[in-house]
């Protein structure tokens, strides 16, 4: 009976022993047992074990655990990804974050997206960035918005652009403004008013015709 075992048991298991747990046994692990597992041992988990993790179990993982799972992290259940603690997600390596699928990124909560670093945000692929929902985009740190590639800014949906705060808009670089082309005409009056002189001067001439 896995849940009845003291957490200390899993603290002393080797990675190779941990990898012997089947899917049912993996799902039976309690949060305290998972917290007791040395981070390095998560590297031994199989894709079947990782895909079996529930939301409660993912919530018990810290950044070191997630980084150790980098090569298999894409097998986490997308429906449970929002259960990872926001602070721990913000601490994972860029290389680890990039292993998450487009679907994983789209399932992140606004609270998780809000705390991601600029380096993490800019490491996302074009498809991941342009796939962000309006709620996710509006939660981004304004500094991170200004670091997104011109191509990705241009690829954002109209709804996503409309959801951006005036603070986020004011952090767009002149190059990003130019890249938007005629999409700047979708800005609200408040968003336009938040533009600096340099930003307004960067609007492509054809966009104003």
Describe it:
The structure is a single chain. The protein is mostly helical. The protein has helices at residues 7-11, 15-18, 23-27, 31-36, 47-52, 55-58, 63-68, 86-89, 94-98, 102-106, 110-114, 118-123, 126-130, 134-139, 142-145, 150-155, 158-163, 166-170, 174-180, 189-193, 197-201. It contains 21 helices and no strands. Helix content is 53%, strand content 0%. The model has no long low-confidence stretch (mean pLDDT 94).
Q: What portion of residues belong to β-strands?
A: under 5%
Q: Which structural class matches the secondary elements?
A: mainly alpha
Describe the sheet with the most strands. none
What is the gyration radius calculated from CA atoms?
21 Å
Apparent shape: elongated
Q: Total strand count, please? A: 0
Poorly predicted runs are none
H/E element sequence? HHHHHHHHHHHHHHHHHHHHH
Distance between the termini: 71 Å
* Helicity, as a percent range: 40-55%
Mean pLDDT: 94
How many alpha or pi helices? 21
In short:
By secondary structure, the chain is an all-alpha fold. The protein has 21 helices and no strands.
SSE layout:
Blueprint: H1 7-11, H2 15-18, H3 23-27, H4 31-36, H5 47-52, H6 55-58, H7 63-68, H8 86-89, H9 94-98, H10 102-106, H11 110-114, H12 118-123, H13 126-130, H14 134-139, H15 142-145, H16 150-155, H17 158-163, H18 166-170, H19 174-180, H20 189-193, H21 197-201
């Amino acid at each position: 009976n896995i849940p009845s075992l003291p957490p200390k048991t899993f603290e002393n298991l080797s990675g190779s022993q941990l990898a012997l747990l089947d899917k049912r046994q993996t799902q039976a692990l309690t949060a305290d047992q998972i917290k007791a597992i040395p981070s390095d041992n998560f590297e031994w988990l199989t894709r079947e074990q990782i895909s079996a993790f529930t939301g409660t179990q993912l919530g018990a993982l810290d950044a070191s655990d997630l980084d150790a799972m980098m090569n298999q992290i894409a097998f986490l259940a997308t429906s449970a990804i929002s259960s990872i603690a926001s602070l721990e997600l913000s601490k994972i390596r860029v290389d680890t974050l990039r292993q998450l699928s487009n679907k994983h990124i789209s399932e992140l909560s606004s609270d998780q997206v809000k705390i991601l670093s600029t380096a993490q945000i800019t490491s996302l692929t074009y498809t991941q960035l342009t796939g962000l929902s309006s709620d996710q985009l509006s939660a981004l740190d304004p500094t991170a918005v200004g670091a997104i590639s011109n191509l990705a800014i241009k690829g954002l949906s109209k709804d996503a652009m409309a959801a951006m705060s005036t603070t986020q808009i004011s952090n767009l670089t002149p190059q990003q403004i130019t890249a938007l082309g005629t999409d700047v005409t979708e800005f609200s009056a408040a968003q336009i008013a938040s533009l600096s002189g340099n930003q307004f001067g960067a609007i492509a001439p054809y966009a104003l015709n």
